[in-house]
UniProtKB/TrEMBL annotation:
GO terms of molecular function: acyltransferase activity
Database matches in InterPro entries: Acyl_CoA_acyltransferase, GNAT_dom
Species annotation: Arenibacter antarcticus
Stored Pfam families: Acetyltransf_3
Source lineage: Bacteria, Pseudomonadati, Bacteroidota, Flavobacteriia, Flavobacteriales
Descriptive protein name: GNAT family N-acetyltransferase
Amino acid sequence: MLKLKGEHIFLRALEPEDLDFLYELENNPEIWEISGTTTPYSKHILRYYLDNAHKDIYEVKQLRLSICNLEGTLIGLIDLFDFDPQNLRVGMGIVVSEVANRNQGIGAEAIVILCNYVFSVLGLRQVYANVLEGNEASIHLFAKMGFEKVGIKKDWISTGGKFKNEILFQKINKG
């Protein structure tokens, strides 16, 4: 996998040494609501996932990339999911793990890099993102990056005995 490089970060394929980072992130209950996780993951399962992370997006319909600073430190993940080559679209999700690294332009730069990849290399027409209502940081980020709010999925996510709405954002490559 080529390195997808920006001014302050680069995206790279997952590596076996990312296991501890992935273990901490996937087992953080604070992000379960946005990731759809309901139970912890074992290192065994995550190692299996890493062993199979090399599979092609056309085969597994998803791609997870590490977000690294220019020194090579892993600071987050950005995902493509529900890859649909027939309809030329894919979903995108992003998480920057440490609060101190948020609101620093990392997410914006990662989204630009990955959208360029999606549109120029994969030749897709659109990228979409699902953001929980109330997640103001993500709403602001995707809107700032040119994603358009196109709908609300009512009572879409059940969490803590309550239902939350989810906002659908789309970015269409009109070029």
